[in-house]
Design brief:
Helices cover 30% and strands 18% of the residues. The protein is α+β, with helices and mostly antiparallel strands. It folds into 2 domains: 3-34; 42-86, no CATH class. It has a 3-stranded antiparallel beta sheet with strand order 2-3-4, with no helix packed on it. A two-stranded parallel ribbon has the order 1-5. The chain starts with a helix and ends in an 8-residue tail after the last strand.
Length: 88
């Protein structure tokens, strides 16, 4: 499958009304990267505890903290290369 075929496939999948909003956003991101519209930023989650000893994760690019890790930072949209390291 070449890039044009992959982009057409993604566009076809985006028309699925039953797809979740999150899945739709991930597909749009993939389509935009494949077509060269955007270049993804790559970050890492940094685990830390706050003053009350609660566990959080901080994006090393934007500095925002989150309670849970995910493949993308919800604040700056960077792809988080190490998110799987923190899955339990």
């Amino acid at each position: 499958m070449n890039v044009e075929e992959a982009v057409r496939y993604i566009d076809g999948r985006l028309s699925n009304e039953l797809m979740s909003d999150n899945d739709r956003e991930v597909l749009k991101f993939c389509r935009d990267v494949l077509s060269g519209r955007i270049h993804p930023r790559v970050g890492h989650w940094v685990k830390f505890k706050d003053e009350a000893d609660y566990l959080f994760y901080r994006c090393d690019l934007c500095g925002k903290k989150e309670q849970y890790t995910s493949p993308f930072c919800p604040n700056c949209s960077a792809y988080m290369e190490n998110y799987e390291d923190f899955l339990t």
